């Protein structure tokens, strides 16, 4: 925050819970607020289990790791109960790697459209992890594929809302591949180790 960071993301729900007060205190020194209704948004970018939803929602502006309509419905219900409107992104396993979470690319359009209709949620866009290979062409092709999915959903939502919908964002690219992601249209990159180095999580 002192270095000028104005968007913060955490990989794990317990990290958000553990650091919330510290971040608020640091932001207050700059005359700012962190999290819901604050000038510095706080996002969960890692997996969220159902039993952690109530702890995360009051603290985080958005959740980038929604893997489908089932989790989205649970978050929608909890957000309604808390009187919140939460930004969400649909995580897509664009590389198809078994070790990664996220919905399958062929389901992404239908899942996103379904999520967009849920109360107390704002579909902000899509998130993915690049393929774990040192091959620019392969990694960029995955990012390009998600961009095409985003464009398709944005177009359908624009038609539904008579053009009064915001183009959806793309959260793509981390420390090792963010330049390739930006080249393929990423609007949000998630830089961690390049700034902080290896970390021990809470």
Automatic annotation (TrEMBL):
<dbReference type="GO" id="GO:0030170">
    <property type="term" value="F:pyridoxal phosphate binding"/>
</dbReference>
<dbReference type="InterPro" id="IPR001608">
    <property type="entry name" value="Ala_racemase_N"/>
</dbReference>
<keyword id="KW-0663">Pyridoxal phosphate</keyword>
<protein>
    <submittedName>
        <fullName>Pyridoxal phosphate enzyme, YggS family</fullName>
    </submittedName>
</protein>
<dbReference type="InterPro" id="IPR011078">
    <property type="entry name" value="PyrdxlP_homeostasis"/>
</dbReference>
<dbReference type="Pfam" id="PF01168">
    <property type="entry name" value="Ala_racemase_N"/>
</dbReference>
<dbReference type="InterPro" id="IPR029066">
    <property type="entry name" value="PLP-binding_barrel"/>
</dbReference>
<feature type="domain" description="Alanine racemase N-terminal">
    <location>
        <begin position="30"/>
        <end position="198"/>
    </location>
</feature>
<comment type="similarity">
    <text>Belongs to the pyridoxal phosphate-binding protein YggS/PROSC family.</text>
</comment>
